[in-house]
Amino acid sequence: MTAVSPLVWILTCVGFLAIVVLDLAVIARRNTTVSIRSATLWVVFYVGLAAVFAGLMFALRGGTAGGEFVAGYITEYSLSVDNLFVFVIIMSRFAVPPLAVDKVLYIGIVVSLLLRAIFIAAGAAAIAAASWVFYIFGAFLIYTAIRLALEGENDETDYQENAVLRGMRRILPISPDYVGSSLTTRTAERRMVTPMVIVIAAISVANVVFALDSIPAIFGLTSDPYIILTANAFALMGLRQLYFLIGGLLERIIYLNIGLSVILAFIGVKLIIEALHGSHIDALGPVHLPEIGIAASLAFIIITLVVTTAASLAKNRLDLRRAD
C-alpha cells in the first residue's frame, strides 16, 4: 500500500472543509424544517461522494486500499446509525425547537469530527509504538459487543446527563429559554448562552463516546490513518441528513443492537488473531488461526447488516399481523 503524500492530505482536508462550508451556507439560508425529500437528496449526495472517493481509492491506491475504505465506511456508517436514536432522545429531552435541530446536529457533528481526528492520531501512534495494542482493542470490542447485545432495545431511560454537561450548567450563565437557533442572548443584566450550547455539547459528547467503539473497530479493518480518517469523515458528514430521513424508522430496526454487536465481536476476534500472527502464533493447539482478508471482512459486515434489517422488518410485519 502506497503512503499518502502531504499534498494529498492537504487537498483532502481542503475538500472536506469546502463541504463543511457548503453545509453551513445551506443551513444559514434555510428557514423551514428539513423535509424528507431534502434529507433524501442530501443522503444520496453524501453516499455518492463516498462512492466516488472509493472509486478513486481503487484506481489510485489499489484494490486493498479501496476495499479497506469501503469496509471502514460501511462499518462506521452502520455504527453511527445507532447514534441517531440517542440524538432523537437528546432533541426530545432538551425540547429543541424544530428549526434549530439542523444547526445543533451540524455543529455537534463538526466538533465530534475534530475530536475523532485526535483519537485516530492517538490510536495510530499507539499501534505504531506497540503491536500488543491490538490485543487491547480486540478485547475491548468483544466486551462492547457483549454489552451491546445484552442492552436490548434503546430506551429514553438509557440517556443520562454526563459530568461534562452538569459542569457546564454550573459554570455557564444559561438562559431559561431558547432564542431561535442563537447560541447567545443578552438580557438587561448580562450576556448569556442559550440551552443550544448544552444540546450541542450533548451531541458532541455522545459522538465521542460512540467513537470509543467505532475507532477501534475500523483499526481492525485497516491501520492506514488516511483511510480511517476519511471513512469517519464521510460517515459523520452524512449522519445529519440521515437523522431527518430515518429518525422515525429507527424503532423498526429492532435487531440493530444485535447486528452491530455481531460486527464488533467479529472485528474484535479479527484484531486478536492479527495480534497473535504478529507474535508468530499461527495456531492455538489444534485450532489453526486463519488469515481474515478485507474481502471476507467486507462480505461479513454487509451480510450481517442485510440479515439484521430483513429480520427486523419481518418481525415488525409479524407483530402487525398479530395486532390485526
Number of alpha- plus pi-helical segments: 11
**Percent of sequence in beta strands:** under 5%
What count of domains describes the coordinates?
A: 1
Give the N-terminus to C-terminus distance in angstroms: 57 Å
Number-wise, the strands total 4
In percent, how helical is the residue content?
over 70%
Mean pLDDT: 80
Spans of at least 5 consecutive residues whose pLDDT stays below 50 are: none
Descriptors for this entry?
324 residues, mainly alpha, 11 helices, 3% strand, 73% helix
What does this 3D model show about the protein?
- This protein starts with 5 loop residues before the first helix and ends with a helix.
- The strands form two sheets. It has a two-stranded antiparallel sheet with strand order 1-2.
- Helix 7 packs across helix 10 (256-278).
- The mean pLDDT is 80.
- It has one domain (6-323).
- The chain has helices at 6-29, 36-61, 63-93, 101-129, 133-151, 163-171, 195-219, 225-237, 239-246, 256-278, 294-323, and strands at 184-186, 191-193, 283-284, 287-288.
- The protein is built from eleven helices and four strands, in the order H-H-H-H-H-H-E-E-H-H-H-H-E-E-H.
- By secondary structure, it is mostly helical.
- The protein is globular.
Brief overview, please?
The chain is mostly helical and 324 residues long. The chain has helices at residues 6-29, 36-61, 63-93, 101-129, 133-151, 163-171, 195-219, 225-237, 239-246, 256-278, 294-323; strands at residues 184-186, 191-193, 283-284, 287-288.
